[in-house]
Amino acid sequence: MSVPYVFSMWVLGAVSVACLLVAPSLAEIKDLGSHFADPEPRGFEVGGGADMEAVPLEFHKENTVTNDLLFDGFEDDDYIDFDKILAAGSDDYTEGDEIDEIATPAPDIDIFAEPSDPKIRRARLLRLFHGRSRLQRLNIVNAHFGFNLYRSIRNDVNQSDNILLAPAGISVAMGMMSLGAGSGTRDQIYGALGFADFVNASHHYDNTTVHKLFRKLTHRLFRRNFGYTLRSVNDVYVKREVAVKDAFRAETKAFYFAEPQSVDFGDPAFLDKANSRILKLTKGLIKEPLKSVDPNMVLMLLNYLYFKGAWEQKFPKEMTHYRNFRVNEKTNVRVPMMTNKGNYLAAADHELQCDILQLPYTGEISMLIALPSKINGMRTLEQEISPTVVKKWLKNMTNRTREVAIPRFKLEQNYDLIANLKEMGLTDLFQESGDFSAMTSDKVHMSWLKHQGTITVNEEGTEAAALTQVGFMPLSSQIRFTADRPFLFLIYEHRTDCLVFMGRVVNPSQN
């Protein structure tokens, strides 16, 4: 009987992914040297605003290290050109935009409730799916998972701690891992992530539809000329002596643009080259994330997500002044508060007792700020936030001239997610009972799963993700929106309804 390999997973970045440890194979796996000499980052530079700090997202997967990337001017040459892929007829670009008819429940079901009855929960989800494209539906379940993971993390940290999470990246990492899982472990991933809810919504869908739509999501998010910069890279590194199955290698490349690289994890040069690649691809935002690597590691998955967006209405720097920010009822901190006046969409949710402001970036992407009315109102908002609530906010916003004040802030967070994912039902991944037979014939399990991110919000922008109206009224009477107390923020890409980033700012004076 072979000794089980340890499966290690590390997610880094504003939008994170995962690091996976599996048995590597030499069968048709690219050599490390060619990867570094001829790097192929996956993603797109879409042209963001200038002079902003970036939001990087990274997911660790053991398999891809880049050698000597040139930092300046590499974007256009090194990124996959999806336009060429589509022009060659190798992909049906419209598939993700199809709207399949699904059986919807009676209109008297309150989809904004959070019932314990699974039938009612399913009915609510199906109503939320109605009229949405396939890709939007997948992102609804991705957001459901992201909000649940956020709540799990929230329960593990102090009330005074800031939080930063990249739900889309983690979902991508889990989708990629499910390619290598046997049927039982795959079903557990699909159940915990909500992929099963998506697949069961229509007879047109099966497990492969999830992977096809993650490929579509890459097409949609990382294209040029959207007015912002959003870039994603999936790297896969495999231990030289380990055999990875051809099907897994082919599918990760086809669906996630990740091609396994054969490496020696015991070689110090691996750390230097991998960290150098991460530093370059995240524009210097993530420095030496890999402090050390277990030489016995078999597979490492890395995913980087970098976002840089310019506000449609930039905050005049001369209007930024230090003001008090109320961390809690007893503590104030002095922070630079950015101020602007213009037309903004906003709403008030009287049921959740919060105000919501939409701050658009250039392009179809924006930051939503949800500000509790009371200093101690964050707990209720965090508990109730869901895709249905967000949709309700967006549907009921009004546009008028407002004076907006929000703090300038930078967050850097690092989480070990194993305990959180176990709590959410993902247990097989981290035990010897886990089945990764679709990836390798060796017995493996995961022992390392980290999520690291950084985001900066300043005057220029951000660098780094028929409904009931009960208890909800438009924010029509207020002309000021002042975020001088703890708030939630969500970064949404609106073409796909993708929740790219989310977090909370409790103390903007702390990273």
Automatic annotation (TrEMBL):
Record key words, sorted: Signal
Domain Serpin positions: 147-508
InterPro entries linked: HCII_serpin_dom, Serpin_CS, Serpin_dom, Serpin_fam, Serpin_sf, Serpin_sf_1, Serpin_sf_2
Gene Ontology MF terms in the entry: serine-type endopeptidase inhibitor activity
Organism taxonomic ancestry: Eukaryota, Metazoa, Chordata, Craniata, Vertebrata
Family, similarity comment: Belongs to the serpin family.
Signal peptide: 1-27
Protein name per the record: Serpin peptidase inhibitor, clade D (heparin cofactor), member 1
PROSITE patterns per UniProt: SERPIN
Record flagged with keyword Signal: yes
Protein's GO biological process: blood coagulation
